[in-house]
Design a protein that fits this description.
With 169 residues, this protein is α+β, with helices and mostly antiparallel strands. It has helices at residues 7-14, 61-67, 80-89, 93-98; strands spanning 19-20, 22-26, 33-37, 40-45, 48-55, 69-74, 102-104, 110-112, 117-129, 132-144, 152-154, 157-159.
């Protein structure tokens, strides 16, 4: 039997994996919230579904679970300051939202006006895995925005991005 991988060893290894930076937002009967996440990915295209991971100990966990809707906003390099605010540098939600321009998606979820793309989601399932809740969202609307370079995170730092237009996309 192999030895168990330690928490620190896993975290150090994952720090070598480059990921796009996203702000995940919610608004509804339980209130408005938002956090920065790099743990987001596609699950299926039939039906269109993505997942995002949220720390179970977050003060916003109950809010996201109760609202049952969220929006994933993929950030550009110009949003680095906003990523920090939503990662916890600023606690006040009004101040976080006041630092950017927002549009409201059809479901009522806040979408960052100049995000690369915003995915409006209905929560289909939530699975608790270790320290995190994995929120599975059925994508009900998509808003395309900026073609600026994506904000990426690797080595516990933001890295110089590549512009979307560089790929002909």
């Amino acid at each position: 039997m192999q030895a168990q991988v330690s928490r620190l060893e896993f975290r150090d290894a994952m720090a070598r994996v480059c990921a796009p930076v996203n702000i995940v937002t919610t608004d509804g009967p339980s209130g408005r919230g938002g956090f920065t996440a790099t743990a987001m990915c596609s699950v299926s295209d039939d039906p269109p579904t993505l997942l995002v991971c949220m720390n179970e100990r977050s003060a916003q966990t109950g809010l996201f679970l109760a609202n049952r809707r969220f929006c994933v906003n993929v950030l550009t390099q110009a949003h680095q300051h906003l990523a920090a605010k939503f990662a916890g540098a600023v606690r006040d939600m009004g101040e976080r939202y006041g630092a950017a321009r927002w549009q409201v998606m059809a479901s009522g979820q806040p979408a960052l006006s100049d995000a690369i793309v915003s995915f409006d989601c209905v929560t289909e399932a939530v699975n608790r895995v270790g320290t995190h809740n994995v929120l599975f969202g059925r994508v009900v609307d998509i808003r395309h925005g900026s073609e600026e370079a994506a904000l990426l995170y690797v080595g516990r730092n933001y890295m110089q991005p590549i512009a979307l237009g560089s790929f002909g996309g």
